[in-house]
């Protein structure tokens, strides 16, 4: 499992931002705090999605205790994939078993078995040091359960760590999992009850894949999986797609689903959901030092080029009835066109918008971007920056001379590679001035541009 760090620091800033998102957002903003209908941060990491009629159920790991140890498998419901209501916990710890509060339960996936009229949950079951490498199974008579734990074991006697479940149109179901100390990737068929595995139908030897998911499109199976990398994203090839006309293979490798330098926009796959002729990539941006504040990176998957590609989108929306998505358009303001103060300097580079970036922000340097047009409401602003360090930086952001908010900037893997992080700002109707880097003693990431969206 890939683990990352922070987006926005400061508990007051997190709470204020989360509440504003809960009250008005009708769009998906990758990397922003996402709250449920009660205004609480959604705790459903390593997601699995179940569709029952017109209702979607989102299962995931509750990391609110900021620990990798098992607290609960949460269950949320929604009719639009945007507004989520927390239901009862689907699965909770049982002392003296492999799913106690001292154990690991990750990546829960639920499918419905028409033969026995049961909802069946599969998950990665492990010890705290990840030495057991098992799957776990639980069952229920309703989507959110609660689920009855059936047991944990090694499928066909082999390791299973990161896993997922795929249910084909004929109601046959398959376990997708990283096996043999993460060296080999396996697809194994489930029995008719979905309680156990029967036989391995395909194996990608030496593939070193994890975080899997499958979308079936026009009779072709697309296997999405990241290369194993521990707790940091690699700086070269990160994500791969394998295709086949049969789950039995053979599998052919395709191009990555995102530019290699983006490291899948600093995220790891959790689930892949079909959306008409498109799809939705549902990933996590892990924060290992405060797991409960890990963010969700949901992005459209498009086949417009002939192979699946993630669509970079700061703000986007879904039309479920049409099976389509729409990426919002915003207004771009280049940082180098702002007013620089102190040690701030303009630098050049081919990886930047307009070929230029503002560096040496913080530690006495700042930049003001003026005449930013607002609509008088809270608006999403995407901040594009570069941070070539191996650790996070952060930057202060203030509007019209008001109090500042500290925005975290994950490392971008290279000083010439940019990443965007979202922040919601209350802009006046008409012209505004946004200041970056003022009043902080440390250096911020180099600021490339901001994109201001009407939505918020």
TrEMBL record:
Gene Ontology biological process terms, A to Z: carbohydrate metabolic process
Marked site, Important for catalytic activity, responsible for pKa modulation of the active site Glu and correct orientation of both the proton donor and substrate, at: 162
For this protein, the record's SUPFAM superfamilies field holds:
Arabinanase/levansucrase/invertase, Galactose-binding domain-like
What Gene3D superfamilies does its record include?
Galactose-binding domain-like, Glycosyl hydrolase domain, family 43
**Domain of life (superkingdom):** Eukaryota
Q: Which GO terms describe its molecular function?
A: carbohydrate binding; hydrolase activity, hydrolyzing O-glycosyl compounds
Q: Which organism is the protein's source?
A: Sistotremastrum suecicum HHB10207 ss-3
The record ties this protein, via PANTHER family, to: GLYCOSYL HYDROLASE 43 FAMILY MEMBER, GLYCOSYL HYDROLASE FAMILY PROTEIN 43
Q: Which residues form the signal peptide?
A: 1-23
Family the UniProt entry places it in = Belongs to the glycosyl hydrolase 43 family.
Domain (CBM6) spans 331-453
- Could you tell me which Pfam families the record lists for this protein? CBM13-like (PF22704), Glyco_hydro_43 (PF04616)
What keyword terms does UniProt attach to this protein? Glycosidase, Hydrolase, Signal
Record-given protein name: Arabinanase/levansucrase/invertase
The record, for PROSITE patterns, names:
CBM6
Does the keyword field hold Signal? yes
């Amino acid at each position: 499992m890939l683990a990352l760090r922070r987006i926005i620091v400061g508990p007051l800033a997190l709470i204020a931002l989360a509440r504003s998102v809960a009250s008005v957002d009708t769009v998906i903003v990758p990397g922003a705090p996402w709250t449920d209908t009660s205004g609480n941060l959604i705790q459903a990491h390593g997601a699995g999605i179940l569709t029952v009629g017109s209702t979607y159920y989102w299962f995931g790991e509750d990391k609110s205790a900021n620990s990798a140890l098992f607290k609960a498998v949460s269950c949320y419901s929604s009719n639009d994939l945007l507004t989520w209501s927390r239901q009862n916990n689907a699965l909770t710890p049982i002392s003296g078993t492999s799913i106690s509060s001292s154990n690991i339960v990750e990546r829960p996936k639920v499918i419905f078995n028409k033969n026995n009229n049961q909802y069946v949950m599969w998950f990665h079951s492990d010890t705290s040091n990840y030495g057991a490498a098992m799957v776990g199974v639980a069952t229920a008579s309703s989507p959110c359960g609660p689920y009855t734990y059936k047991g944990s074991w090694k499928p066909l006697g082999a390791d299973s760590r990161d896993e997922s479940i795929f249910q084909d149109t004929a109601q046959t179901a398959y376990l997708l999992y990283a096996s043999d100390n993460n060296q080999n990737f396996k697809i194994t068929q489930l029995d008719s009850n979905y309680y156990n595995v029967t036989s391995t139908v395909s194996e990608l030897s030496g593939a070193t894949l994890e975080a899997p998911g499958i979308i079936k499109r026009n009779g072709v199976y697309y296997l999405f999986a990241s290369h194993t990398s521990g707790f940091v994203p690699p700086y070269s090839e990160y994500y791969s797609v394998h295709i086949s006309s049969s789950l039995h293979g053979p599998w052919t490798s395709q191009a990555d689903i995102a530019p290699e330098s983006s490291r899948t926009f600093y995220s790891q796959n959790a689930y892949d959901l079909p959306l008409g002729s498109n799809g939705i990539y549902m990933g996590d941006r892990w924060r290992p030092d405060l797991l409960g504040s890990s963010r969700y990176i949901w992005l459209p998957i498009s086949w417009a080029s002939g192979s699946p590609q993630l669509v970079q989108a700061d703000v986007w929306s879904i039309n479920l009835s049409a099976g389509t998505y729409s990426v919002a358009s915003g207004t771009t303001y280049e940082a180098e066109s702002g007013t620089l103060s102190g040690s701030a300097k303009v630098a050049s580079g081919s990886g930047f918008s307009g070929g230029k970036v503002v560096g040496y922000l913080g530690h006495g340097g700042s930049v003001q971007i003026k005449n930013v047009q607002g609509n008088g409401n809270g608006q999403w602003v995407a901040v594009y920056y570069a941070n070539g360090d191996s650790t996070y930086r952060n930057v202060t952001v203030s509007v019209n001379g008001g109090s500042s908010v500290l925005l975290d900037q994950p490392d971008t893997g290279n000083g010439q590679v940019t990443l965007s992080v979202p922040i919601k700002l209350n802009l006046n109707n008409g012209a505004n001035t946004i200041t970056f880097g003022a009043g902080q003693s440390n250096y911020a990431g180099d600021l490339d541009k901001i994109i201001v969206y009407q939505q918020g």
